[in-house]
Write a structure and sequence with these properties.
alpha/beta; Nucleotidyltransferase, domain 5; 5-stranded mixed beta sheet; 12 strands; 25% strand; Type_III_PanK
Length: 245
Amino acid sequence: MILELDCGNTLIKWRICELITNTVVAQGSSCLVDDLVAALSTLSEVSISRARLVSVRSDEQTELVCSRLSLALGIQVSRAMPTPQLGGVVNGYIEYEQLGMDRWLAIVGAYQVKGGPMLVVDLGTAVTVDLVDAQGKHLGGYICPGISLLRHLLKSHTQRIRYSEDAGVHISELAPGCSTAQAVERGCLMMLRSFVDAQIQQAPTYLGDHFEVYATGGDAALIDDIAGVRCVPDLVFRGLAIACP
């Protein structure tokens, strides 16, 4: 079996797949590498033969994850690296190495679902939107703060916007908030959804009238009811399988 890891800014997301059928047999997420190793150590019935990893963390932090896994599991860890093209997609950045690896693999993963013009929206700590044309050319994209960052910015840069994280906020609602917590959460949600709506509205200028919209990342459910949006939670892992077969 193979261990797949997506080391993001906040969480290390992981899953274990059966190599032949690609069936997911276990999955989870951890904030710290120690917690990751501890979680994996409880899966005594699972035999992991190797691992592949994508990371947006520093080289030092990524190397720590790789070395700890190699030591704990006795396996080789392959790391996805930047490439000018992969899986039928041409990297559109002027300096291809500067495109975030999780973002790049989500694009590649989406292209494997259905080749053709598409928007790829990844909603995590940051929200990224990328455009790919009918020929697999990455046209570039956009980056803005995710909902957790928007929330944090308001709470850390104002004197009186304060509320507990467990304030019973119904984040899926968009009615005017009747408390500070509701007003902040719903305001941030409206900003996020408006950003995605704007991307979909302008996409025909670059992609034509017919294109797919794929959403992935921890907050993808916040936009899954927007018309035309298709949530595919494992786009990064799909791209990782192409980068590190």
